[in-house]
Specification:
The protein has one domain (about 1-310). The N and C termini lie far apart (about 50 Å). The chain has helices spanning about 1-10, 15-35, 65-70, 85-105, 105-130, 135-150, 160-195, 200-245, 250-255, 280-310. α2 crosses α4, α5 (about 105-130) packs across α10 and α6 (about 135-150) packs antiparallel against α7 (about 160-195). The chain has about 300 residues and is an all-alpha fold. It has ten helices and no strands. About 70% of the residues lie in helices and about 0% in strands.
Length: about 300
């Protein structure tokens, strides 16, 4: 199977990335369902997708990205406008799946697609509800550790004996989960002591553990501090603009509302309180940056850092 994929990738270099993109948009369509239904405690399988007016959406009007463009962002049954976020998530998933394929070997790319899917779901649920469900954090952490044992290539482990490869890779997954969750936990504790209020949610602690299970302890550390940097770069200009505008709380809530009600059912009823900012999306972006190409620079830095102290 892997040999056939490598053959196609060599002879038709455009084919498999294109297939990865199309497959990603299909997965992205399912992720939209998960993002909406999981926080509401609904099944992601039954019933099928329905419009907000209650009419089932036929399959030919549920083609990822294309259907939204063809229908010009309006439901065919009732002409109600639905959010651009749906095709945006589908397109984003497709792009990230294609990048995974281009950046990694086939096995790591496929494992990375699962990693990306979990990150996208957790990110948008955190945006909407200020929570990261345990199935993406704890569940993703367990899956990451198991995949580390099963596929040593995930952590680029090579050893003389196959069993040694699996054990070393599994240990790296476990260490990554422990270091990631432990680092965020202690930063949260110290932040609460210093500022006398929770500095970070428990969901963020478990979420970095999930990233560490897939990316190792180096990826977990980078996600934590890279996420903080990304948050600073993104949030500080927004807070400055908000202060200059002098917007009140009512204006903030209105801006947070979605463009329209969800086309898969009723509109969401849960939104972050004014002034609250989810940290999960920042962690997810940093984790993606590490996994999709920046790992070689981060790992080289940590190796030099370790060698310096060992030599010293």
């Amino acid at each position: 199977m892997i040999e056939a994929l490598e053959f196609l990738d060599h002879d038709f270099p455009w084919m498999l990335p294109a297939f990865a993109f199309v497959f990603g948009t299909i997965v992205g369509s399912f992720l939209n369902v998960c993002i909406y239904r999981i926080p509401a405690g609904r099944s992601v399988v039954f019933p099928g997708s329905t419009c907000s007016c209650g009419e089932p959406i036929p399959f030919y009007h549920n083609i990822p990205v294309l259907s939204w463009c063809i229908l010009r962002g309006r439901a065919h049954c009732c002409d109600q406008k639905f959010s651009v976020r749906y095709p945006a998530i589908e397109f984003l998933t497709g792009v990230l799946f294609a990048v995974c394929w281009l950046q990694h070997t086939p096995v790591v790319a496929i494992l990375g697609m699962l990693f990306v899917a979990f990150l996208i779901c957790a990110t948008f649920i955190d945006f909407d509800h200020m929570i990261i469900p345990d199935r993406f954090s704890i569940g993703g952490m367990v899956i990451g550790v198991l995949l580390s044992f099963a596929f040593p290539v995930l952590h680029a482990i090579e050893a003389p004996l196959p069993i040694a490869e699996h054990i070393e890779s599994g240990v790296m997954g476990i260490v990554g989960a422990i270091v990631g969750a432990g680092l965020v936990y202690w930063i949260s504790v110290l932040g609460e002591v210093a500022f006398r209020k929770p500095a970070m949610g428990e969901g963020d602690v478990k979420f970095v553990g999930f990233i560490g299970a897939f990316c190792g302890w180096q990826g977990a550390v980078f996600a934590m501090f890279g996420g903080a940097l990304i948050g600073s770069v993104v949030l500080l200009p927004l807070l400055m603009v908000q202060r200059l505008r002098g917007g009140g709380e009512g204006e903030q809530v209105e801006e947070a509302l979605p463009e329209s009600s969800d086309c898969d059912g009723e509109a969401d009823e849960f939104y972050p309180a004014p002034g609250q900012v989810p940290f999960g999306p920042m962690l997810a972006v940093a984790g993606l940056i590490y996994f999709l190409g920046f790992s070689k620079y981060v790992d080289a830095y940590f190796n030099e850092f370790t060698e310096f102290f060992i030599g010293y």
